[in-house]
Fold these 2 entries.
Entry 1:
Amino acid sequence: MLNLNQHGVAPCDLLRRRLEAVTGRAVDGLGDRALLDTPRRTIVFGADLHAEGAPRAEAWLVVGGVAGQVRLLPDGRRQILNLRLPGDIVQNDGQDSLVALTPVDLVDALPVVRELTEGPPQSSLRRAWVAALRAEHARLNDQVVRLGRLSAYERLAHLLLETHERLFHVGLASANAFHLPLRQEMIADLLGLSVVHVSRTTQQLRRDRLAATRSNYVTLQDRDRLADIACYVSRFAARPASNRFERPAGVRAAG
Amino acid sequence: MLNLNQHGVAPCDLLRRRLEAVTGRAVDGLGDRALLDTPRRTIVFGADLHAEGAPRAEAWLVVGGVAGQVRLLPDGRRQILNLRLPGDIVQNDGQDSLVALTPVDLVDALPVVRELTEGPPQSSLRRAWVAALRAEHARLNDQVVRLGRLSAYERLAHLLLETHERLFHVGLASANAFHLPLRQEMIADLLGLSVVHVSRTTQQLRRDRLAATRSNYVTLQDRDRLADIACYVSRFAARPASNRFERPAGVRAAG
DNA sequence: CGCTCATTTGATTGTTATCAAAAGAAGTGG
DNA sequence: CCACTTCTTTTGATAACAATCAAATGAGCG
């Protein structure tokens, strides 16, 4: 099964697939390897991606692992604002810290961000970048709805569907299973719940034969019913079948 | 007391003050009246700002009233994603509808948005626009934290502080009071609570002598303590005192 | 005054948090 | 391979918070 820290997908492929997923069309002009073929930087679990003393890049492409923007309240309560998965480009927003929720592998994305933001206004790359920003914004809105109006059960179902879809589109999930190396404590902080309740809710989803989680691997047993329960709406562009990226080696159908 | 639907602030002043508030410095080059001196469009309560048959502008400046981006779930649950107050520029994002929560006055902001987005990259206007987008994003993050990790009491306190600050910076609030023409039902949908609980929480804030709401007017009686309770952090730039905009006529100290 | 809509109140239920402790995993060194 | 440690998940019991239901009060308006 695919592992988020050890997969064979090249950085430029991750980014290209992400952009193709949000635009729904082929993305050319990323220059294959050149722009992202920089040395990897590895962040240890719990460390800040934008800590002092780090290389000076202002934008990183997540290549492996999971990061998250974290808001810490004075009394110790924590809210994880979003997850940053392989294929995501992360930039420091100056408000909240960006923390490695697992070991995280990064490559410098500043050159490619320049390419994406400074090309001619109607270029394929710039439009893909705008689409990516819009998708990210839509996911943030989804997070608001999740926290504001969904029950714990629905929240967890929604999160699993969203995460699966994001990973699937960069080739890091099979049709209905994926690697999610997060402790329940982090899922709790992401969904605004307590650890204990995340544990109970996870088991409830398993008992209902909707989603089974065992040691960091999630299997979605009934995506349609989960989507129905969680009011899940895809934030990816409908993509013409002829345009799909090729399955990367190593992705198998879920067991 | 200032009314959000009948105030004497000109559209271009609203926008200028908003931009000055997020950048912390004077904003010139908006061309005074010209770019925003278009006929007003009035949206009736409950209607969609981007409804069919409307004029074709893709960006509007809110001049009066309150709008909000609304997500409606299939079973009738509602989540208001954010509030759009006078001085805000709203654009259709294609996902969620933008609804008038009170009667709303708009002017076409397409010309001024072009000005803000298409000038030279380092121009004062473009940087102000970027700062405004960042502030909006930060507020969306605040909304996530509010829903995810704050209690009902804290959520309401936080919302009142944020709304006061936003209105104050465009000259539509006095030092600690403002007009908030929203029904409790809308505050409930914004804060992920039930109407009944909003009612109870409002009264609790009044009993604690922190914030008093009576018929759409809110008085913040102890901003410091409210901010402490709600973990409130300002999303506006610290502004040198010498740079403050002049108080508009009609703003008095709160009673 | 009487209508309608919004807010408030009271009673009850349901959901989720908290606390405490047990069980399970994973790694370490003997 | 086993004892030992540490971390994570699970379980059970209880409490706090917020939702729901139903009804009363209040405010605004013709």
Entry 2:
Amino acid sequence: MPTPASLPRDPASIAASGDVRGAILVAATRRFASKGFGATSVQAIADDVGSAKPSLLYWFKTKPALREAVLDALLDRWKDVLPGVLAAATSGEDRLDSTLRAVIGFFEDDPDRARLLLRESLDRPAALRARLRVQLAPWVAIVVDYVRRGQRYGEVRADVDAEAWVTHVVLLMVGCFATAGVADVALADAPDAAERRVAELVRMARTSLFPDALH
Amino acid sequence: MPTPASLPRDPASIAASGDVRGAILVAATRRFASKGFGATSVQAIADDVGSAKPSLLYWFKTKPALREAVLDALLDRWKDVLPGVLAAATSGEDRLDSTLRAVIGFFEDDPDRARLLLRESLDRPAALRARLRVQLAPWVAIVVDYVRRGQRYGEVRADVDAEAWVTHVVLLMVGCFATAGVADVALADAPDAAERRVAELVRMARTSLFPDALH
DNA sequence: CCTACCGATCGGTAGG
DNA sequence: CCTACCGATCGGTAGG
């Protein structure tokens, strides 16, 4: 029993509901994530949306401008979840686990986010770095601070390199979802591969941060 | 005092020395790694080599065939270092550290290898997965076995998920070199960022595998 | 938001 | 290994 389209996810129906701009962003995000910016034509995105190419170029003046808009939309969504991440990082029990789970949820909701970030870091590392410095700075600073404070109180291993540790944990989270289809070489065809990878990621982050005595 | 070109690294001089095919592979590897397959034109590679486009298409019949050849060359080089990696993994002291350092050296020698692998895992995950299953299987099996045996003897943490752990450590090594230009958001402009990341990677792998008592 | 069209470049081929 | 060229597609614009 199909309900009247309430949350249309495919670009064509989003466009049909009136939000052409939003439909273009969704279609472009999928194409850029799965095939890359350079391998995606404006025409292909227009086809996904059900519009003519010049219509797309009315909403986004150029192809590079569309890329920026896609990245803006991604980082806007990050800003939406950031408060929850910060809350998890600064209060309550099991701060590390709940913080990681919050970030993981962001990529779990849409693995295209992870693929897009990884592609950008390959295509235009300097540009992404500049963006992330602004958008990611507060969260990273808090985590680094949390690690350093833990080290002063002996709760965190003394030999942890706080900045490098955060970098690697973020890399693990992004890479985990961006490379889900291939990194399971070792995991064969385990049906629960995704959950196992997330669980092991969290375990690795925890054991590499805290001494055994405090687990 | 320039010595007579002994180890020419740029495609044009490799071609001039007679190895046109090799020059094409080097140029294609660089372009595919830095800009991606879809964003690289056959003409651009031919220009790097100093040949005409039809000459390139004489050596490699199609652009997709060139991509396969580039990947073949990469995995051939891996086969060269594999014995050393296996030796490090199966004998001597500090097996884990020396094994990781051997693999890290492979990517350190040419970070394009890491970028290329990451791009392939985004562009064609199924194809790369099939390739890696053949090429990477022996090494992964040995490491997984090593972890499992360690768990039986109590030398390795009981809650380690061997397959997921290997997957993540490989992801860290590849990602570390592929995203060197951007992942340092947290590391600011530390001049020793690269060494710090490698050191922290090894530390994370070690502490997430072994209980503190056995360090 | 469309049709019609632009010059440039794409991967690839004919022929030598 | 080259020159010359192919049809198709590229991002983008004119004009409405």
